[in-house]
User: What shape does this take?
Amino acid sequence: MVSAGACRIGGCGADPTEVGNLASYFDHTILKPDATVEEVDSLCAEAITYGFASVCVNGCWVSRCAEVLSGSEVLVCAVIGFPLGATVTEAKVFETQRLVEDGACEIDMVINVGALKGCDDSYVQGDIAAVAQACHRYGARLKVILETCLLTNEEIERGSRLAKAAGADFVKTSTGFSTGGATPEHVALMRKTVGPVLGVKASGGVSDHATAQAMIEAGASRIGASASVAIVRADAS
Assistant: This one.
């Protein structure tokens, strides 16, 4: 079980131009359905070596990652309601409780995108709030994935406001499994909407140093990427 206060927002306020700081922005990610145990173990080893904020994995890998990362400062982040967000709230809460018990310190949930687009704001906020409460009961943090490529700017703003009101710790752009990923423009809009305290995670299509830098300059305090190692190596060269 995760103890209260065990989790942190990696990278917030750091200067990515300073040596060693860029890595702390990254959730080192493997979410493909055919990931093997060897790949997951390698992900964890890389996260320790480079000092990434977390590894972000599907739920079936949480206990494995928690075991491999035991004694390190790298957190375990798990996705729920992924990648469509269209499961019922009770299922999202169950996933959250189980994965926090397995060792997840951070949960990345997908909102019900159709409900947001249909202006059912009460449902969207309630869905997020239920998961936030399940996270915070054990000191875990919640990131709320909006899937910005499917939304208008007004919907991005509204979704960000609802996530903040529901008690989320971050808003996040994308799953990486839809029609597009993060853009600096969407990151900037989310940052403007939620203010300076909440985290903003840019994820989806962040595959090189220039893109990562652009996301940070736009207001991202966390970046989700599978190319994290290549990006931080480029920063050091």
The CA atoms of residues 191 and 219 lie 6 Å apart. The mean pLDDT is 93.
